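Internal ticket - ligand job 310, S-adenosylmethionine:
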Amino acid sequence: MQINSQRSSEKLASSEHHVSVLLQEVLDGLQITKNSVVVDATVGGAGHLKEFSKLLSKKGTLIGIDADPEALTRAEEALSDAKPTVVLIPGNFRDIRDHLESRDIPQITHALFDLGWSGFQLTVGRGFSFLTEEPLLMTYGIPEEETLTAKDLINSLDEDKIADIIFAYGEERFARRIAKSIVETRSEKDIETTSELAAIVKRSVPAWYRHRKTHPATKTFQALRIAVNDELEALRDGLKGAIHLLAPGGRVAVITFHSIEDRIVKRFFEGLQREGVGVPLTKKPIPPTEEEVKENPRARSAKLRVFVKS
Ligand SMILES: C[S@@+](CC[C@H](N)C(=O)[O-])C[C@H]1O[C@@H](n2cnc3c(N)ncnc32)[C@H](O)[C@@H]1O
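stdout (structure tokens):
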């Protein structure tokens, strides 16, 4: 799970920025051909995007979406001499259908969703990291344009609601204790930074939990990030939009980093199969090889599922 590998991947990310996960497996699963119309719905470090571009001819189209405009700047650089037509779209992938249809792209042949944060975002003070002192934002887009941040959530929601979020989206067994400590602390002063929140979590959990390999705040951070970005609904909307846009025979690949997301993708693809829309190509999700995990600890929790439309 992403939550198990965040600490080691944070270290890696700060020195290497972002290493694309399950790259060969995605290429094998998608089967892009030279005239394909491919959407990378999560550009990030532009690693997958660049590889897609190498497979496309002048007649192909490559569309990149990311909520973070810095990802699109990286894509522009990475694709400066790309052969296919390139369309870069700042925005949320949950609106994929509107983004493409408003640009006269009614149909696509392939899409990739590689969920979560990129290594670049861990090092720029967005509040994803509990190892450094950062403002508690946890948003993917431009901070000034975001309407909701993690700071808003933990300083305004009632204790039960905070506990529910940490339990449901982080599967954190000590959610109630952590929520109680958050509410006690904020009655003195607003909680502003990642390290303040990490310290609150640390002192609310038992000693044995504090001293495990995984940082005790990992699940709490994951949960708040999911809540702030409405990630599970965004994923459902994004998948629905991509399937609608997909041509017959087209493929969608999704890389998830925790079991809640993987379950959503699995059930979504199974539902489409029941409706006769297509078939999941992966009955079981594809994990990374041991070698990949050794080179890139963040890959440890990754799972790939691929769906083909009939
Ligand atoms: C794991 S990274 C993608 C890495 C990329 N595949 C690569 O090879 O470099 C995920 C990216 O998705 C973006 N993202 C996450 N949720 C999003 C959403 N709902 N809409 C648009 N972008 C999103 C993040 O900003 C981040 O840049």
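Auto-summary: Confidence is low (pLDDT under 50) at residues 1-16. The longest helix spans residues 259-274.
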